[in-house]
C-alpha cells in the first residue's frame, strides 16, 4: 500500500505551519502554489492511494479533492506521528474507509472538523459512501 518513508517525505514537503484540525480554520494551504498544481498533486495522490473520483458540482469536485488530500495527510500526521495509531491501524481506520467516500461534499463539510469527528464519520458516512453492490 504505502510505506512510512514515502509518507514521511510527502509530509516533509508540505507546509509545516497549519492550524490543527478542529481549530475552526481551514488547514488547507491556499497560498503559494497555483490551484492547478495543488489539484494535480491531490489527483496524483488519490490515484496512488486508489481513492475514487469525487462526485459533486463543478466547483465541489476540485475543492473536495484538494481537501481530501490535505485531510488525509493531516490525519496521518495527527494519528501516526503522534503515535495514537500505528500505520496499519491508520490504513484500516482512515485510508480504507476514506475510499468509500465518493462525495466531494463530505470533505468540504469536514474541512474544519476535529480528528475524532472525521474518524467517526469515516466509520459511518451515511449517504456519502459509494454503493458497491447492485440492489437489483
Description:
The chain is an all-alpha fold. It has a domain at 53-124. The protein is 54% helix and 0% strand. The protein contains six helices and no strands. The chain has helices spanning 4-13, 35-48, 60-81, 87-98, 104-109, 115-123. Helix 2 crosses helix 3 (60-81) and helix 3 packs antiparallel against helix 4. Mean pLDDT is 76; it is low at 1-20 and 131-136.
Q: Provide a count of the helices.
A: 6
Query: Roughly what fraction of the amino acids lie in strands?
Result: under 5%
Instruction: Tell me how many strands there are.
Output: 0
Shape: globular
Report helical residue fraction: 40-55%
Main beta sheet: strand number and arrangement?
Answer: none
Low-confidence parts lasting 5 or more residues at pLDDT below 50?
A: 1-20, 131-136
Structural class: mainly alpha
CA radius of gyration is 14 Å
Distance between the termini: 33 Å
Report mean pLDDT, rounded to a whole number. Answer: 76
- Order of SSEs, N→C? HHHHHH
Give the SSE layout.
Elements: H1 4-13, H2 35-48, H3 60-81, H4 87-98, H5 104-109, H6 115-123
